[in-house]
Amino acid sequence: MTNLKIAETPNDLPSQEDLLSMSGLEFMQAMLRGELSAPPISGVLNYRAYSAEEGRVAFRGTPQFEYTNPMGTLHGGWYGTLLDSCMACAVMTTVPKGSFYTTLEYKINITRTIPMGMEVEAVGTIQHAGRSTGVSMGEIRGVADGKLYATGSTTCLIMKGR
Question: In the record, what terms sit under GO molecular function (predicted)?
Answer without folding.
Answer: fatty acyl-CoA hydrolase activity
